[in-house]
Amino acid sequence: MEVQLSKTAQEALDRDCPVLVLGGPGSGKTTLSLLKAQEMIPALEPGQEILFLSFSRAAVRQVEIRCRDILRSDERRQIAVRTYHAFAMDILRAHGRMLTGSVPRIVYPGEENLAKAAFDGDWGAEAERLARDDGRFTFGQFAAAAAQLVAGSASIASLLANKYPVIILDEFQDTDDAQWALVKALSTRSKTVFMADPDQRIFDYDARVDPERLNHLRTHLSPAEFDLSGENHRSPDAGILQYANAVLTNRPLPETKDVITRAYWPNAFDSTVHAGVVWMLGSLRKAGVAHPSVVVLARTNALVGKLSTVLGQEHNFNGQTIKPVEHDVLWDADLTAAAALVVASILEWPGCPKETALGQTFDRIADYFDAKNAASASNAARQTSERYRTAADRARRGETQRLASAKGLTASYDNGLVLQGDPARDWLHARDLLAAGNDLSDLLANAKFVRLFRATDEIGSRLASAWDLRGSYGRAIDLVRRALEAGRLQSDQRDPRGCVLMTIHKAKGKEFDGVLLVEGQYQGSFFRDTDTEAQRAASRRLLRVGITRARHQVAIIRPRGAPDLVTPASSSFSN
Ligand SMILES: Nc1ncnc2c1ncn2[C@@H]1O[C@H](COP(=O)(O)OP(=O)(O)OP(=O)(O)O)[C@@H](O)[C@H]1O
Fold first, then answer.
1. CATH number where 158 lies
2. Which of 33, 154, 256, 559 is 20 to 30 Å from 446 by CA-CA measure?
């Protein structure tokens, strides 16, 4: 890869740590941090590595791909790219005994969900107590415990500093309080390189992610600061970044052919989006990109699910037939697995007493919302989980339901669920009962992603054998759980290419030749009338992250009559 460094970037490369590199999307922060790592590799002693910490497995994967562009294979072996979770878990496993006097036990999310469901009270406080008193650590406790170990023990701190004399911290603006405590403890002995873009702070619904984090860092370490904000290497010749910055700052949108907007009539959503994807692929090829990568982004999982269905069908657009588009979906496997177990629980209904059948289904729904809360903390998910736990208790006691969707599912049970012994049809039949209420739309969308596990054949054949044996699906939940675990191992290793669908949050840190940003008519809205100023600002940051994933072309597809992207209204939204 041909890399030309600006004067500021070169200074950042040459400066001793600690260093803080600020810059907008595509300004070259990740590239620069890996070049810095490359410069420091020769000084490493045998057994030492440079530690690169990021937030998610997806982000780690992205950095590993970038390492392949920039570093030689012998250099790559000296960089450990890890998530905070994995790194903190290793510290805990190796030294946790010092905190509680016994070997620490890891409480995995499934087990945590069950414990949480059975617990009446503040789960956060209980998780802290479990760690402190019982030596049992939930995922949420890892960073805080690791921080305590590193800060409290000079020998652990020097062991880690000796192993990792240099630490690179990606997306530093999103660091939560416990992760910051860990970084602070590590930074006393290791050299540190921080990368951040405050305007890409999109996880601020988590109260532990403090908008003041960069100032904490400045006060604590006084790093040398380098601002790359004038640079844009991702789409240097395109008007994409200017457009995204105008959306961020609510200023008039610049005219550029690189970002086009289309408005659809309510009944033409499917064909407009489908045509948009086909147009994007064609126009990138025409522009000389032989194998274009295109991402279709939406705000919610539910809309991503719908878009996947849309692209899988044939449509008519302006008198032309458009064929289905092959695509991959980057989705949340944990949520899909949890949603699949809800469907499986419905398959267990026939022959199961009402109290048990519905109690179990409502519990599985609550598990789904627990998984959602675990994936990204949200009050709505937490509350919905609690509502379904209550519904499960009411069902077991034979009481009338209060939740609309619990009532709907109860009515479906009362009507008698007739299954035929054809697993594919029965699965869809059971799944579609989840359309009972609006609060289940996200769950239903995730249930539709089950096919992405590439495990549907496996699930189908296990269900078919169960049916053949006893004329019912028996313990469908266990059976589906086992099939998913097997399928999951394979799906995690796939590398999506061509046309990919995902939420905007998932796209962070990635880049594609073309981006389609899609707003639904009734879901995945960019702005809502009820938004506060802070919510509007958060939406603007999120849209900017989405738009700036593109190297060459962006298309924004919105419902006709949607509020303008910027106010005062600009002329560039075409109807
Ligand atoms: N100095 C450079 N010269 C040429 N290309 C570069 C340079 N720096 C980065 N690039 C290219 O620009 C693109 C964006 O770079 P990079 O991912 O490092 O930016 P970033 O600031 O980390 O972006 P984001 O915050 O959006 O994740 C990549 O394709 C990278 O290869």
1. 3.40.50.300
2. 559
